Amino acid sequence: GGENPDETRAKKAADIWLTQKLRFEGKKNEFEPYGATKDPAEKHDGWLIYSVLMMGNSSDHKMVKVCIREADKLIALAMYNTEKCDPKIKELEKERGWDKQKSAEDQEREQLTQQEQPQTSNNSAPTTVEQPQT
Length: 134
Hints:
The chain is α+β, with helices and mostly antiparallel strands. The protein is 38% helix and 22% strand.
C-alpha cells in the first residue's frame, strides 16, 4: 500500500531531526526511516502524532516521535519516543500565540456544551389533583 503524505512527512522530519541530533554528538546518522505509524498512546487536538522507526545498519534501531500540526503541515516537532509531544506543543503554541486562538474556540465550545445540558425543571414538585365533587 502507498503511504500517505503525512507518513512521508513524519519520516522526513524524523530523519532530519536525528541527523542534527547525532551531528551535535559528533556522530553520523546511519539510520534510515523505515515506517511511520500513528502513535496510539498520545493524542493532541489539531496534531497528528506518529512513531517513526529508524533502522540502523545492524539490528540497531531508534524510535522517533513526530508531531505534525494539522493546520500547517510544515510544522513538525520531533523527539525520542520516550518523550511526550504535549509539553513541546504547548510551548510552541504559546510562542506562536496559537493558544490564544485556541482558547477562544474552547470557550465557545464550552458555552455550547453548557447550553446542551438539560435545565432542571420543576416537574419534580408534587402536583395536586383536584377531586371532582360528586
